[in-house]
Amino acid sequence: MSAEYRFKVVMLGDGAVGKTALTTRFTQGGFEADYKRTIGSDFAIKKLHLEDMDTNVTLQVWDLAGQPRFEVVRQGFYRGSRGGLLVYDVTRRRTFLNIDNWREECSKNLNREVPLVVVANKVDLANSRIVSPEEGKKYANEHNFLYVESSALTGENVEQAYSTLCRMMIEESRAKVSSNEA
Ligand code: G3D
Ligand code: MG
After folding, report:
1. Is the pLDDT of residue 8 over 80?
2. Rounded to the nearest whole angstrom, what is the distance from the C-alpha of residue 43 to the centroid of ligand 1?
3. Distance from the CA of 87 to the center of ligand 2, in angstroms?
4. What is the pTM of this model?
5. Which domain holds residue 166?
6. Ligand 1 atom at shortest distance from the alpha carbon of 121
7. For ligand 1, what atom is nearest to the CA of residue 32?
8. What DSSP element (H or E) covers 50?
9. For the chain, how many structural domains are there in total?
10. Residue 162 has pLDDT above 90, yes or no
11. The CATH number of the domain where 163 resides is what?
């Protein structure tokens, strides 16, 4: 029988980096040029099968407006989440510099570090790219996170970003089980 996991995960990053576009692409398989601005927070559900691990994962993906104003909304957003995607826009350096604030806010709200995947989004805009792959990888390495380059527009590596996160969360949860058994 396949192993089954359920995880809540959060989309983190500044406004307009593509959090909603990635979530929509992943959970519904499409891209819409004109998104409704996320108000408060919202979640979508998607099942994934990891063939090589013979494992099914049900992901509950929480997406939040870029600048949540209310502390209480934020707490509900983070509560119970097991990991997240730290998303920035490769054409805007400010959004890359800010991912560390999102990492910090996440661990503060959860009172612990959870697995995160650094997602360099909008790589289809190659001519306006400002943040290099090396910079993104370096940040990810420093924090023991993994790094993925994606485009919600073309769909490139979108599923990869979420499945990479699943693998990290499964590893973490297995490590916890075996340390409890030890
Ligand atoms: P957010 O949820 O992080 O705030 P959105 O960001 O998903 O709303 O995306 C913000 C804008 O970037 C949207 O454009 C969206 O279409 C665009 N976008 C998202 N991902 C990509 C991508 O990978 N490539 C390109 N080229 N654009 C992307 P608008 O014009 O609707 O503001
Ligand atoms: Mg959004």
Report:
1. yes
2. 18
3. 11
4. 0.93
5. 3-181
6. 23
7. 16
8. strand 41-50
9. 1
10. yes
11. 3.40.50.300
